[in-house]
Specification:
- 4 copies of one chain form a homotetramer.
- By secondary structure, chain A is an alpha+beta fold.
- Chain A contains 5 helices and 13 strands.
- Chain A has an 8-stranded antiparallel sheet with strand order 2-3-4-7-8-9-10-13, covered by helices on one side.
- The first copy, chain A, is globular, with a radius of gyration of 24 Å.
- The interface between A and B is large, with 102 and 102 residues.
- Strand 13 of chain C pairs antiparallel with strand 1 of chain D.
Chain lengths: 314, 314, 314, 314
Amino acid sequence: MTDTSRTPAAAPAGRPALLGQNQYGKSENRVVRITRDGGVHHIRDLNVSVALSGDMDDVHYSGSNASVLTTDTTKNTVFAFAKKHGIDSPEQFGMALARHFVTSQESIHRARIRIEEYAWDRIESSAADDVRHSFVRAGRETRTAQVTFDGAGWEIVGGLRDLVVLNSTDSEFWGYVKDPYTTLPETRDRVLATEVTACWRYGWPGAAVGEPDWEESYRLVRGHLLAAFADTYSLSLQQTLYEMGARVVDARPEVDEIRFSLPNKHHFLVDLEPFGLENDNEVYLAADRPYGLIEATVLREGADARIPVDMTNL
Amino acid sequence: MTDTSRTPAAAPAGRPALLGQNQYGKSENRVVRITRDGGVHHIRDLNVSVALSGDMDDVHYSGSNASVLTTDTTKNTVFAFAKKHGIDSPEQFGMALARHFVTSQESIHRARIRIEEYAWDRIESSAADDVRHSFVRAGRETRTAQVTFDGAGWEIVGGLRDLVVLNSTDSEFWGYVKDPYTTLPETRDRVLATEVTACWRYGWPGAAVGEPDWEESYRLVRGHLLAAFADTYSLSLQQTLYEMGARVVDARPEVDEIRFSLPNKHHFLVDLEPFGLENDNEVYLAADRPYGLIEATVLREGADARIPVDMTNL
Amino acid sequence: MTDTSRTPAAAPAGRPALLGQNQYGKSENRVVRITRDGGVHHIRDLNVSVALSGDMDDVHYSGSNASVLTTDTTKNTVFAFAKKHGIDSPEQFGMALARHFVTSQESIHRARIRIEEYAWDRIESSAADDVRHSFVRAGRETRTAQVTFDGAGWEIVGGLRDLVVLNSTDSEFWGYVKDPYTTLPETRDRVLATEVTACWRYGWPGAAVGEPDWEESYRLVRGHLLAAFADTYSLSLQQTLYEMGARVVDARPEVDEIRFSLPNKHHFLVDLEPFGLENDNEVYLAADRPYGLIEATVLREGADARIPVDMTNL
Amino acid sequence: MTDTSRTPAAAPAGRPALLGQNQYGKSENRVVRITRDGGVHHIRDLNVSVALSGDMDDVHYSGSNASVLTTDTTKNTVFAFAKKHGIDSPEQFGMALARHFVTSQESIHRARIRIEEYAWDRIESSAADDVRHSFVRAGRETRTAQVTFDGAGWEIVGGLRDLVVLNSTDSEFWGYVKDPYTTLPETRDRVLATEVTACWRYGWPGAAVGEPDWEESYRLVRGHLLAAFADTYSLSLQQTLYEMGARVVDARPEVDEIRFSLPNKHHFLVDLEPFGLENDNEVYLAADRPYGLIEATVLREGADARIPVDMTNL
């Protein structure tokens, strides 16, 4: 939903260079929202990044800020909206922000809100049941959301990153192409480990239809990803990727498309023979770099392909 | 040049989910190449990431690796090519690799090679002039390159990141929109600092025409970026961005398009009045988060817009 | 237990400089140990760093390696010992390594083994109960251990880092010194958050007495740290620190001394008045830098003070 | 100069745990100081961490802050002193702060100031010679300083980190101990690379004698470290370390002691034989982990050994 079709404005007289696509905003607003339900407190902990685009030729060509809502103002809005609207989910919070920016400023035509959420668990304590205000960072994967609104349509993308998983068996790798640079021996039993980065696009068409339950959907997609990873007897990480995506598309009708970036976190079997020891798939060296990187999207039949697979910054 | 038009293959019978765009390869191969010219040594220090795509439905749908050149083989190829072809520039080295993968394997239709290069200076030593084999990491910005080849056409993108620059004056910020969430005071003199990430697409149409001098071009583009930053009296970071891009497009005919990601590294003037001190633009707090983020592409008139502005991972 | 009393050897003739304290070894050996109990697998995931010291004057003064067990050999030993001795706990594994280096090489007088352990949970799957080989990184805090052996005595230090905790109330801060640079308003209700780095020294005197149950002890110390943080009505982070340490010393007789490094992860109440909103301890900005840093050791009465409070690298 | 001899105060009645060594303060104050000399500006860019200790039993035992200068106040002092005293060198600035804290507050007995300094170069621009206010981060190594004052004596330690150096030849490694876990082949020509972390203690005895020129001393010590690394034909990294330290002690009379932490940044010669290529010390894989780690101090004859070699956090 990036504005790829933008026709660059004419360049200023005598200048050879046109402004192309552009966006701006305040990134990484770290907002923590406490809600008090008597002595029982709840916490949501977000990192919110705002990117706006619209009629921004003048500020680039001449430095006139007349159409610019400052990034400082977008920061203030994030904190004010945490109070006014609360944070029920990253998606709901992002939608409130995106709608505000596009509908309140004529010069803003599109808003894209990116959110990371950090999870907290409650600390078990000896306090009474109605006194609960102590938390420990769960340290699990980071939940992500991206909300884009252009005044007409919505694109809502959920996601997660840093979900590290490992199967200590039920993974083979053989039957691949051998060219003059191939030295890798085939294997019928290896460790398969990866750090899942995934994002999934909701098919929700906008206000005419009820929204998905963003919280429930996140919880269930995460569960399907883990289960599919665990349940797949793997002949390649690509196959595991597809099975993870197909499980989500199959089980969660609200999801149309899911993109994965799966580094192959190599665990090399250590050669212990020089020390008179047999290594029967017991001792591994966990390597850092280089690593295989498998990236793909998986789509519901009939759905549009909108998430590009190649998303890393240059 | 991502294969965005890919028609997903039919899903396996009974499966709801199609494979969409995909790519794979070995990432972050850290190759160091020493060249000995008598006692005078030269060093190139790269981080090379390979991403291949093509006929890869089977490996995703069934785990058959029959069309898969392994990521381990792509790693071996990187090191072997460092010996066979040497490293004259990241662009030349990436081109040799991309051409090899696409032309040597029928199942590979497209190769994208990403390279980071780390710079080294010579250590001054008391050794004779013809004995020079000691180096110190320059620690300056990282040079980047991305080479994409699909068997027919080339896309060559140079770049850099982590180039941190600061003007201690000649920057103003005023005249912006005031909405109910605006509290920022206007200023006629502020520090302007940013960490430049830029990538630029060469217009080089392929083998029919001589290649640009990649080394010289990198050196000159970098110089123009610094000079334009320093020379621009700035009314907004957007204006500075445009001036940097326009300078490159104007001065370097081999560059058709340049994309920037410029975080506004805020330097807040510290209020020293409570301590009876005047702070006449002398003492600043360098802040981390949040930060304004300004992103845009600048294009040569008539050139295609091919680098999307919104490149960050979800 | 660093060899602080080392008498530097005489310097080589004509040299002005003596060798002082020194140590060497292979750092960050990433060893993953899988144990198969039928179809039920177990995993231990460590990062092991070896530091040896002893008769090492010659290698520094002349480059003679005759007394040097290479760092590569220490790496091999880590992987071989993972097979030979298994990994029951970081402490037990570190002890096996330290004993080996000191007792097998005359030139090695002291070995210090540092270990980080990363925790994994099992993935719930639909597999039969006796088929369990899928794991997800718990992502919780990292467990640490440091084992030092000099041929005569042992020093065993357990620990953890990256345990992030937050109380959303029951924290005050007032009554402090006001000097000419003090501007901070007092508060009777603030968020208190920190990222606990702690290490605790076991009083275990060596082989004459049975070892503590290292696994159980770690689990219980961690629980006491969390409970004490949650249960303490805090007037200062220093007070909370002491209560956490005192709880451990009180409840765990095997621990003689515990050291904390507690950054005060500031959560600033955002001023929403300019937007006509009241912020009744609901919306906070989570700040990065600068941060208060509180460091202290807490000791059992009668125990020696052996862990220095000031441990950060220069 | 850590207060290792501290006698823990009596524990509160009925408590089993004593407070041991302790310190506190605000860490990572990022202060940027601009000095305007007409149109020519100068910049110093520091990260300042304050740690204070003294009569702090009450704040730990009871939460009374009556003796506590808040960390917020220490932050304010850093910024105010940047205005009042300027920043001629990290050492001078740290001394002004340390003296202030110890002499202005009865409860503060010791102050330790740690400083990192980031270097900037000027950007070449077309502006007139008397208009110079554009800078680019040099990105070289980070300079460090640690100043400790206890009301009577000073300890001044300069330093640097992240200085990455490499010799592409003139390094051998052989003649080492072979035990049952040794597999490393000997070599007569290898790449030797390391990332220098060094800190050196000045012998300056305090105010009775003129201070060293801290700026000049830093510049010269850095030069000697580089030259000694380049000039040493190395049989072991330990030997190179000693030669670097000895060169500094020999050439710089103001330095009494220098400590090094030198990771051996392994560059492995890649085996290209499977591809029919000879690798005559030309193509290397730059590895990340594990790495050899060599740590030692080098002392002037007759000087006290005060910097412990084992400084890493547990």
